[in-house]
Automatic annotation (TrEMBL):
SUPFAM superfamilies named in the record: HAD-like
Family matches, as InterPro entries: HAD-like_sf, HAD-SF_hydro_IIB, HAD_sf
GO cellular component: cytosol
Annotated keywords: Hydrolase
Pfam families: Hydrolase_3
Molecular function via GO: magnesium ion binding; phosphatase activity
Protein name listed in UniProt: Hydrolase (HAD superfamily)
Length: 275
C-alpha cells in the first residue's frame, strides 16, 4: 500500500501556464485522504509560492521547498538547512568575479524573502518575481547577511545567459564552489546552490520517517536534474514523459502523459484505483 506521494512542480505537476486542473485534483486528493495516502510537493522554489498554489489544502499537505533545504507541514516550519554568511559571501564573490558577464541574475533566498540586487534589470526582476513571490531589492547583494535581513538564508540562485557554452559555464562554476556547497539545475539555465548532500530526497526521507513509510510505499514524480535523488529513492518513481533523459534513466517508470495533459494526476488516479 502506498503511504506517501511526492511530486515536483514545474513541468511535472504544473502545466506550461504554471497551473493545474483544480477540479481534477480535488477528486484525486479526496481519494488520497480516503486511502490514508499523504501528499507532498517538492520544488526548487520558495515555500510561499508552493503554499499559494494549494490554499484549500495547506494544512493537509507537506511542502519541500528550496530543493530540500526547507520543509513545512502546512504553515508550520519543521526543518531548514541554512547557509552561513561566509558561505554566501564567498559564493557571491566567486559568481561576480569569475562569471559576471555570463550571468543574467543572482538571488539569495531565505525563509521570509528572496533577495536581489537593486541593480538587477527590471525585466529580469519581473521574471524572477514569477518564481519568487516575496522578492525584495537590496542595495548590495554582495553584503547580504542573516543579520542584515533578519532572515534564515538557505539558497543562492544563479541564472546564466542562454548560449552554447552555458553547460560548460555551469560545470566550471560547480567546480569552484566553496567547501560544503553544491548546486543543482532547477531548469531555465538556473542553478540553486546550497548545502552539500541536501536535495529533494532529503525532504522525502524526512517524510518517510514521519509517516513510517519504506521505499516501496512511496511514489515520486519528477522531470529534471534536481529530482534525480528522489526518483532513485523508490521503485515507484515516475519521470515525466516530457522529462530529461537522465530523469527517465533514474526512474522506475515514465508517465504515459506529459505535464500538459495531467500526467501526474492521471498516474496517481491509476495507482489509487489499483491498490
Amino acid at each position: 500500500m502506498i503511504k506517501l506521494i511526492v511530486t515536483d512542480m514545474n513541468k511535472t505537476f504544473l502545466n506550461e501556464a504554471n497551473r493545474y486542473d483544480e477540479i481534477k485534483f480535488a477528486k484525486t486528493f479526496q481519494k488520497m485522504k480516503q486511502q490514508n495516502v499523504n501528499f507532498a510537493v517538492a520544488s526548487g522554489g520558495p515555500n510561499d509560492k508552493l503554499q499559494n498554489l494549494f490554499i484549500d489544502y495547506q494544512d493537509q499537505m507537506d511542502f519541500i521547498s528550496q530543493n530540500g533545504s526547507v520543509i513545512y507541514r502546512g504553515s508550520d516550519l519543521v526543518h531548514a538547512e541554512s547557509l552561513s554568511d561566509d558561505q554566501i559571501k564567498q559564493t557571491l564573490k566567486m559568481l561576480y568575479d569569475d562569471f559576471g558577464p555570463d550571468i543574467v541574475g543572482v538571488n539569495v533566498s531565505g525563509l521570509k524573502h528572496t533577495y536581489v540586487d537593486k541593480k538587477l534589470p527590471e525585466k529580469m526582476y519581473q521574471l524572477m518575481k514569477q518564481y519568487y513571490s516575496n522578492t525584495v531589492r537590496v542595495d548590495d547583494l554582495a553584503d547580504i547577511s542573516s543579520a542584515s535581513t533578519n532572515d534564515q538564508l538557505v539558497k543562492v540562485g544563479v541564472t546564466f545567459k542562454q548560449g552554447e557554452n552555458v553547460m560548460r559555464k555551469v560545470h566550471e562554476m560547480r567546480q569552484m564552489l566553496p567547501n560544503g556547497l553544491e548546486s543543482l539545475s532547477s531548469g531555465f539555465n538556473t542553478d540553486l546552490i546550497g548545502t552539500q548532500g541536501v536535495d529533494k530526497a532529503t525532504g522525502v526521507r524526512y517524510l518517510m520517517k514521519k509517516y513510517d513509510a519504506n521505499p516501496e510505499e512511496v511514489v515520486t514524480f519528477g522531470d529534471n536534474e534536481n529530482d534525480l535523488g528522489m526518483l532513485r529513492l523508490t521503485p515507484n518513481s515516475y519521470a515525466m514523459k516530457n522529462g530529461i533523459a537522465e530523469a527517465k534513466d533514474n526512474a522506475g517508470h515514465v508517465t504515459e502523459f506529459d505535464n500538459r495533459h495531467d500526467g501526474v494526476l492521471r498516474t496517481i488516479d491509476n495507482i489509487l484505483d489499483n491498490q
